[in-house]
Amino acid sequence: NSSEAINTDIVTLPRFILESQQQFKQARGNLTLLLNALQFAFKFISQTIRKAELVNLINLHNSSITINATGDVQKKLDIISDEIFLNAMKSCGVVKILVSEEQEDLIVFQGNNINDQTYAVCCDPIDGSSNLDAGVAVGTIVSIFKIDPNVKDLKQNVLRSGNDMVAACYAMYGASTHLFLTFGQGVDGFTLDNNLGEFILTQPNLRIPQQRSIYSINEGNTFNWDPKISKFIDLLKNPQSEMNNNCVPYSARYIGSMVADVHRTFLYGGLFSYPCDKKNKNGKLRLLYEAFPMAFLVEQAGGKAVNDFGERIMDLKPKHIHDKSSIWLGSTEEINKFLTYIA
Ligand code: AHG
Ligand code: MN
Ligand code: MN
Ligand code: MN
């Protein structure tokens, strides 16, 4: 029986969306259109990154340097991926507002009917771009809000609490391309099958481990941290401290792509942090398209996400579209250790 060897009834992302849409009576198919455009953008960016070196898209000898609104140097792939993402959102017809790390201001798409343009989308087209030239895993991070047609000032549709997100996801372009997605009812993980060109459901209802002795932080910033933070990290490394139930020091793992560090944290557990420091007074990671979507996903998988002061990331509200925040996220027990420590 040949059907024993392979699964002939796989759940593709379009099938998954259709089946979960049928559960919501008010669904009008707009979310399906948005998800279709998102997955196209992820596939396109994935392919572009994978052939970058062969078509001279990596930045080793780039002459012209441009800087984005948050002070980052833009690489060629940052700009191309931003364009890919923008065009996908523009053409799907259901997005009214787009915020991108690589665009100083928000972008408003003109449509025929505001009731069709249901969504505001915020994105980090390439997360981890400092790793691009070395072929290390990078990703795309997205948060999704619903437009309120009664709100006159369009910007207010994204300057809201993280609790207002209706969906969030990220794609990670690693050895395989992965997609982790939430609509606020748990997290589901998909893997891109390059031959089929489809994202396949591989990790339904993903749960983050409750505990794991791994910390993920740029420790090179120690001398710029508040001494309280350095002391907390020292406690994790000390096998005799009250933080170490097993009397083994924590392992350090830091890739420098938030997407990849959070992805590992999802699967193995542990904690990931980018705290405030002397250089980054409000942290480095941006609320709308880095901290919010990751916090939503982590909480939906049973973990926690807070800032340096122990406030829930999801409860924060940006004043400007590129506002930043400190962040601590990961396994519930690990984040609880931090919360107990700062209390
Ligand atoms: P981006 O590449 O989108 O600008 O994001 C970079 C972020 C994030 O991916 C990562 O966690 C962090 O910057 C790494 O910063 P350091 O190099 O300062 O550790
Ligand atoms: Mn950047
Ligand atoms: Mn980023
Ligand atoms: Mn980026």
TrEMBL record:
Entry keywords, A to Z: Carbohydrate metabolism, Hydrolase, Magnesium, Metal-binding
The protein's required cofactors: Mg(2+)
Domain (Fructose-1-6-bisphosphatase class 1 C-terminal) ranges: 208-341
Subunit structure: Homotetramer.
Known catalytic reactions: beta-D-fructose 1,6-bisphosphate + H2O = beta-D-fructose 6-phosphate + phosphate
Enzyme class: hydrolase
Protein name: Fructose-1,6-bisphosphatase
Any single Pfam family the record assigns to this protein: FBPase
One Gene Ontology MF term: metal ion binding
Residue stretches making up the Fructose-1-6-bisphosphatase class I N-terminal domain: 12-204
Assigned GO CC terms: cytosol; periplasmic space
Alphabetical GO biological process terms: cellular response to glucose starvation; fructose 1,6-bisphosphate metabolic process; fructose 6-phosphate metabolic process; fructose metabolic process; gluconeogenesis; reactive oxygen species metabolic process; sucrose biosynthetic process
Cross-referenced PANTHER family: FRUCTOSE-1,6-BISPHOSPHATASE-RELATED, FRUCTOSE-BISPHOSPHATASE
Taxonomic lineage: Eukaryota, Fungi, Dikarya, Ascomycota, Saccharomycotina
Family: Belongs to the FBPase class 1 family.
Pathway: Carbohydrate biosynthesis
Superkingdom per UniProt: Eukaryota
EC number annotated for this UniProt entry: 3.1.3.11
